[in-house]
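Hello forum,

I keep getting stuck at the same step: I have a sequence, I want structure tokens, and every attempt I make locally crashes halfway through. Rather than fight my setup again tonight, could one of you with a working pipeline run this one for me? It's a single chain of 547 residues.
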Amino acid sequence: MAVQRSEPVKPAANEVLLITSGDLRLAANQECWPAQRDMEEKLTAAFAQQGIKLVRAHAYNEAEKHGFISSQRMGMDVFMHIHPEARVVFATAAWQYSHHVLPGLRSHQGPILTVANWSGQWPGLVGLLNLNGSLIKAGRKFSSIWSKDFTDDYFLSALQEWLRDGSVSHDVSHVHPLDLDKLAAESAELGASLARDLRHRKAIIGIFDEGCMGMYNAIIDDELLNPAGIYKERLSQSALVAKMRTVGQAEAEAVYQWLVAKGVKFDLGKDPATELTLEQVTEQCKMYIAAVRIAKEFGCDAIGIQYQQGLKDMTAASDLAEGMLNNADRPPVFAEGTNEELYAGGPLVHFNEVDECAGVDALITNRCWSALGLDPSTTLHDVRWGEHYKGQGIDAFVWLLQISGAAPANHFADGYAGASSERQPAMYFPLGGGSLKGIGKPGEMAWSRVFVEGGALHADLGRGTIVSLPLEETERRWRETTPQWPIVHAVLHGVSQNQLMARHRANHVNVAYAPSAEMADKALATKAAMLAELGITVHLCGITQNG
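Reply #2:
Ran it on my machine without issues. Output:
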């Protein structure tokens, strides 16, 4: 018998539907729900002032104690009851899995507005940029806005524009196309040469299970990736666990003792449910060794561990291993049963959360920085939050960049001696494991993002300065975000807070240091030339080319 399907009712002219996406992990959804509820109350009031009723398209779940869409199937079911031409607002105050709502938004015909609260408490801004990047890759038109309390002029003006026109315009005048003719000849030649070498020998990125946490924006199709000379080795995280079982306890303890001798401070306790234990740390050291050995077995030039789903229920967090992998100075790993050191003399490039766009970026950065004799230690960070800071010779908007757990120790002022390891939050990491935490050292840096738009690869490149804030301000910012994770205080050159939010195509940004502003410019020019030679369209953000 045919299924009877009822058509969804179109909302009234003064109604807008609200949806929100959450985590797959119940504990995270429950923990973050109060912040989401408070945000929705403020957002509802802001819409009411415009004469618009904001109506939730899905109910609060009394049994689970939260009101998030918590799976892809649930999201599809919610959209079955949303009229295809309805005005829809996606609102988030927490980290969210974009694939919960992407299928519905991708086929939706009405205006879409994505909104986040300007808060560091939970990674809501990170979740917003993740969805925005995914929608851009999918080719779905949408508008976006952000606000601390939804009463400021910037937000209200954008809201009025969206309600009137169905879209919001932002200032993105900081974005400029690369003019290859204006690059210094030395940089252009080096970048092009590195690109030709990559295409000739080709490179492999090892993917330990694709598609972490709904990050559709972080997946590059082979048809786009292969012309750049980069290919995927699709690996399973179960293979990583199996390889960990072949690593001897003495080998793992040797890695731990290497870190202790370097000065890493481990905040150890006895209760594995809430504290970091030595057993968790040695398990992480086994993962580090296993990952290097698998990379060598498959000839990988870079690897990415997904960790979050599946592996989180089997082993301690991957973060300590990831931080070590990305650092030029790291514990030696030997081929099993031999004295052959693997990937000696530098990082084994790792892209956290198996973000393939970040992996391509990091691989190219490694080639360029190494060719210039610079420290190739690099990492991605979440675009987490930020505030204007005045004092200590600083009068600028200072971004807080923060990756989930680990940055390379060479990015800290005192290297490993400036690092600590604390237990990852239990709501995300039930089996614990330590981070590699530190404060980003002051210095010049290059930032970048590779992304997919219009069926092609693009890259945004920019310059910045990592600044030193007073310890009490750093501690305050840590309390406002996640204190177990490394922190970077970044001032981006020529790019305002709202410009970055309006333009950035992802939740992640890649960061690499340079010893001076001159060398940062030279490294970026080399990287721009290499990207362009590989067929990747380059955009300069906040950079004006003067030859």
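The longest helix spans residues 26-49. If your local run keeps crashing, start a new thread with the error log.
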